[in-house]
Amino acid sequence: MSPLVKIRSERDQMSAVERRIADFILENAQLLRDYSSQQLANALGISQSSVVKFTQKLGFKGYPDLKYSVGEAIARADNGDTPQVAEASSGEGGGSSAGHLWRRKSEAEEATRLINPPETLHAVADAIEQAGRAGKVFIIGLGEDDIHARGFALKLSLLGILTVHNFDTARMTANVSAASAGDVLLVFSEHGNHPALCKIARYFRERRGQVITVTRHTANPLRALADLCLVVSAHDELPYIQPLLYQSALQHLLDGVFVQLCEGHDDLHAQLLANLDRIQLMLEP
């Protein structure tokens, strides 16, 4: 894994000092070879030991090891070997704002892919598939989180999986009273700290259902209640860019689960095609 991608994917779980180091490296990757650990510490106004601990926490032997690895990643990117590790400068590459946004989205999607291993996607898809055959899949998201919750609920319905979708916490609480063992609750919450969603998750676990959370890659109350969790790594210093990165990476992640369901189960795939044909016939004049 590229060290720059690793730093991006782990940034959301870093301390404030670690995030400062991470941001400096990401924004000045091309210049890192000219900095010693002491010079980097002086530039950030922190101790040299903080820099050393940061590199070791990422799995490197020390700062020189990290610096060498970053230099290699940049060289490979310049040679076109690893396009996903494109220049990590302050945002000028690509020749335009649109080009920069495209690259940042690709980086967020790559970082998110790396922190959600294939085993996790398989486990989530299997839990949803089993709940669809023997019970129900409950789905909730509030505010902007409901955009993805609603879209994913529609995809599951097309596969013939019974879904109970709601964006009202009171109604979902009532719906959950009908949950039973084997059912699944998918909770979409970017920051994972909404009290009502945490209460619904606890209630669902009392009903012996399985809770799957979709949040940022941070320690949060909702994620702590999950049996399985999907996490998103997407950050940017610009407040109008960061939500775009989160939405893009999240959609990419959900698409991966949907593809797992389609390709792993022939009957679900057949049901999808049949439903799409029915919808097409309904829309025709």
Automatic annotation (TrEMBL):
Where does the UniProt annotation place the signal sequence? none
BP term (GO), one: carbohydrate derivative metabolic process
Taking every annotated instance into account, which residue ranges of this chain make up the domain SIS?
124-263
To which species is this protein native? Rhodanobacter thiooxydans
For this protein, the record's Gene3D superfamilies field holds: Glucose-6-phosphate isomerase like protein, domain 1 (3.40.50.10490), Winged helix-like DNA-binding domain superfamily/Winged helix DNA-binding domain (1.10.10.10)
- CDD domains attached here? SIS_RpiR (cd05013)
Q: Where is the HTH rpiR-type domain?
A: 1-77
Q: What is this protein called?
A: Transcriptional regulator
User: Can the keyword Transcription regulation be found in this entry's annotation?
Assistant: yes
Annotated region Disordered: where?
80-103
Keywords, A to Z, come to: DNA-binding, Transcription, Transcription regulation
For molecular function, the Gene Ontology terms on record are: carbohydrate derivative binding; DNA binding; DNA-binding transcription factor activity
Q: Give the source's domain of life in one word.
A: Bacteria
